[in-house]
Design brief:
The protein is an alpha+beta fold and about 270 residues long. Helices cover about 50% and strands about 10% of the residues.
């Protein structure tokens, strides 16, 4: 075999087995003729920062808000009914507490809720707009912080329909309410008609027992309101709506328990 023939046969093989170092040795002109083999590698793709989702905005199921429009409407109705039931109980207990304590206290006006001009239908407590004091042990003195709220306070006192509460305006910021020395027990279902300023232990315990029965009646009413709303909505088991209605009833029942406990504590009843 001649040398040119041997060279022609060796060239294809050398192109396959020649190394990079050999290409550099042969020079750039020859190495440029070398075929480039495809390079494959395993590239791991990561989510871009812009597409990554944070868990900080995720809300647990127990804290999710009611999204259904019908459910929100029913929730607002139930909330208003429960609030009315609790405020009724608060007003009744305030009257019982005054008779059981044997003295006139600002707690007698605790059920009063005021609708301030420009605030819509959001009601506020009396102590948020005025101070309530006692003069001579038998007269309540209300002093509003701002004069323009006096009319709203007077209207709220009448709207509360508390027994023996007759406001009398003294000046542009003051209202006085004389309390009779003997109060009639109009809300008791027992044969208790009058209490002196120093009621006996038996009388205080009887009033506390009445407050206890009224508290249980209020709790039953709150549960009925909850059950009626849940039945009307026909919500699924373990749904957010069921949990929210349960929380609403529980909050109001706790408020009833607080009112009763405060009454027993202030009067020393058992």
């Amino acid at each position: 075999m001649s040398l040119p023939s041997a060279v022609r046969l060796a060239v294809p093989c050398s192109r396959r087995i020649v190394s990079r170092n050999s290409c550099q040795f042969l020079g750039s002109s020859q190495s440029s003729c070398m075929p480039k083999s495809p390079i494959t590698s395993c590239i791991r793709l990561y989510a871009s920062r812009s597409k990554a989702k944070s868990t900080a905005d995720l809300v647990p199921g127990s804290k999710q808000a009611i999204t259904s429009e019908a459910a929100r409407f029913e929730y607002a109705k139930s909330e208003a009914k429960m609030s009315t039931a609790v405020e009724w109980y608060r007003k009744e207990v305030a009257g019982l507490e005054t008779r059981a304590s044997g003295r006139v206290t600002p707690a007698l006006l605790s059920p009063v809720r005021i609708e301030l001009p420009g605030k819509g239908k959001d009601l506020v407590k009396l102590e948020e707009v005025a101070t309530v004091g006692v003069r001579d042990g038998s007269t309540l003195i209300i002093t509003v912080f701002e004069e323009h709220n006096l009319k709203a306070v007077e209207q709220a006192l009448y709207a509360a329909k508390l027994p023996n509460i007759v406001p009398q305006r003294q000046d542009s910021r003051t209202v006085k309410i004389p309390i009779p020395r003997s109060l009639t027990s109009s809300s008791c279902d027992m044969d208790i008609h009058h209490f002196s300023l120093r009621p006996t232990v038996e009388a205080r315990n009887a009033l506390a027992a009445t407050a206890q029965r009224m508290a249980e009646d209020t709790r039953v009413q709150l549960r009925k309101i909850q059950q009626a709303s849940v039945k009307k909505g026909d919500y699924k088991k373990h749904s957010v709506e069921l949990e929210e209605f349960q929380k609403l009833a529980d909050r109001n029942i706790v408020e009833v328990d607080k009112i009763l406990a405060q009454m027993k504590k202030s009067t020393g009843a058992r």
